[in-house]
Request: fold
Amino acid sequence: MAKRLDGETAIVTGAGRGIGRAIAKELAATGANIVVNYNVSDEGARTLAKEIEELGVKALVVKADVADYDQVGEMVKETLETFGQIDILVNNAGITRDKTLKNMTRQQWDEVIHVNLGSVFNCTRHVIPHMLSRKSGRIVNISSFVAQGGNIGQANYAATKAGIIGFTKSVALEVSRHGITVNAICPGFTETDMLWEVPENIRQRILEKIPMGRFGTTEEIAILVRYIIAEGDYMTAQTISISGGVYI
Reply:
């Protein structure tokens, strides 16, 4: 029987849509109260909060730019004032600014670095002291298969996602003896708004690279995250791929 997360509190960044939304719902269905973080997707975040509360748990909607260290600090403060504890952190927020390197601007590089990698530092740095004081915690960082194989036009994105893997392993070594696990997952091509914005002919070429012949679903990613959090008591410093076998 799967373990429950009743009474625990999870912060999920970038939860307004896509993978973050699915993760938030999966953890809520397992009994956790959810902090729904968003920066742009206001309507999506509030709709999600209603769906979470229909599952019989509590939801706190917090608009915060996770690339901003001080805004993250305020989010963590509000979480503790509301729930009294933080048991789970899912660093999911991310953006793309795809260009080949010769066409990439410094702004496109900086934006992706600050949101995708800076946010992981900001959120983890603010949450870790609380978890250390309680000698308990679960952190899952959302990387990407692009971190492992690269991708044309995504030097900025790949750099951040590879950085997340190094960050995950290093922090895990620091805190695991205190009852805190830190792991990363590397999704492959997943059915999100970002994927559907890709032209149909390019999506078909992508499918040809996937041994399983289909895209992943956000629900499949969420189930893996829930397993790591609820069942992975002896799992830390790991990078788990969920990509249908694709490896660019």
Q: What stands out?
A: Residues 88 and 138 are 5 Å apart (CA to CA). The first strand starts at residue 9 and ends at 12. The chain has one domain: 9-190+218-241. The first helix runs from residue 18 to 29.
